[in-house]
Amino acid sequence: MQYTEIMVRYGELSTKGKNRQNFIDRLATNVSQTLNAFPEVKIKAHRDRMHIHLNGADSAEIIKRLKVVFGIQNFSPSIKVERDVKQVRQVALELMQKLYHEGMTFKINTRRSDHNFDYDTNQMNDYLGGYLLEKIPGLKVQMKNPDVTLRCEIRLNGIYLSYETIDGAGGLPVGTAGKAVLMLSGGIDSPVAGYLALKRGVDIEMVHFFSPPYTSQKALDKAKELTVKLTPFGGNIQFIEVPFTKIQEEVKKAVPSGYLMTIQRRFMFRLAEAIARKRNDLAIFNGEALGQVASQTLESMAAINDVTNMPILRPVVSMDKNEIIDIAQKIDTFDLSIMPFEDCCTVFAPPAPKTKPRIEKCREYEQRLDVEGLVNEALANIKVTEIKPGESYLNKQADTFAELL
Ligand code: ATP
Ligand code: MG
To answer: Over the stretch 110-137, which tens digit does the pLDDT of each residue have?
Structure first.
């Protein structure tokens, strides 16, 4: 017996008046992007539910993908039957016979959106329940916590049977909480920060700094591949690559080694802010965690933040490395993150970066540089790519939909 439809129940925002339509539209777009490999699938987003018509598509694959889309509370794969009670009871019987084990308890739960149907909900419950009890000896009715709840939904275009309710990823549909940039390196922390931003509905655009020839094409591809890994949660993501070589070389020439890291990162923030403002993004997310490395002390964060007024959001700020790694493994970014490609930060890392840089010193050293010119030159050479679920940048099939979560 093949599933014909998946019925999706919305998550937390669906109850909030004004946002509701926006919530539903975004979720429909995100679901359709994450199911881009199945053009036969049709999505109908209604006020209270979303119906995904499979039209023969592989339901197991689609279920796997739906499980990680933010904004879905849960969903039920279902079978469409003609509006003929005899046919319905026959399909119900086949379903229950498959599921049956000794002493199994069940109940029927009918809902009607078509109130003119011959049977009301109680009559339908009795009709189907009675038939199943008669045909499957040993089956028992139980209203509270039965082993199986067989749902029967009477709609104008057919009757839908389902028995499974599968948990969704929760969170908010990506895009309903505004748009922001994420500073994405090739490391472990920033993809996790990105995942946490997506979870709360933020539409992120990746900003990645790279420094050819010091960093290779492989390092750039790795950052793109990490982006692919985040697409299942909310659909397509813009990847913005920013050439950083000249800035790093100039900074290295002009700035004492202890301040190299801090000044480079001040440039990163300036660029991230400029890109965000141009693209109407409201904030900058990054993967900084307190105390992890020299650039992540409070003093250092203050010195770096000095160049921008934009909110800098750090979803992993107070997590231990192990906690971050747990999430990275769950979302399947960890193995990619630990691939040993050089990052622009490590290439130009000073041997002993200051852990307590002073803001006045940063400003003083930057007077030796044409800050605005360097920023504008980098901005003039950014490149934007739209990254979609299922793409691959490291010449290996992106197994984006491995059992996540
Ligand atoms: P990650 O594991 O995310 O690389 P990290 O612990 O290595 O983080 P840093 O190298 O100090 O820490 O970087 C801190 C944050 O700065 C990163 O989480 C990321 O958000 C941002 N960042 C670092 N390098 C880059 C880069 N090349 N492109 C974009 N953002 C970067
Ligand atoms: Mg790093």
So the answer is: 999 889 999 999 999 999 999 999 999 9
State in Å: Cα 26 to ligand 1 middle.
29
Dist. CA 346 → ligand 2 center (Å): 8
Q: What is the pTM of this model?
A: 0.89
366 and 278 inside one domain: yes
Asked if residues 75 and 166 have their Cβ atoms less than 8 Å apart, the reply is: yes
Q: Is residue 174 part of a domain?
A: no
- Same domain? 373 vs 264: yes
Q: Which helix (H) or strand (E) holds 187?
A: none
The verdict on 219 and 253 lying in the same domain is yes
**Nearest atom, ligand 1, residue 186 CA:** 4
CA distances from 183 to 246, 371, 389 (A): 19, 20, 20
Question: Which residue range(s) make up the domain with 23?
Answer: 5-169
Give the tens place of pLDDT for each residue, 311-356.
Answer: 999 999 999 999 999 999 999 999 999 988 777 767 677 778 888 9
Please state the domain count of the chain: 2
Mean pLDDT of the chain: 92
Which of residues 169, 202, 228 is at a domain's end? 169
Q: Indicate which residue's Cα is closest to atom 10 of ligand 1.
A: 345
CA-CA distance, 66 to 372, in Å (whole number)?
45
Whether the CB of 292 sits within 6 Å of ligand 1: yes
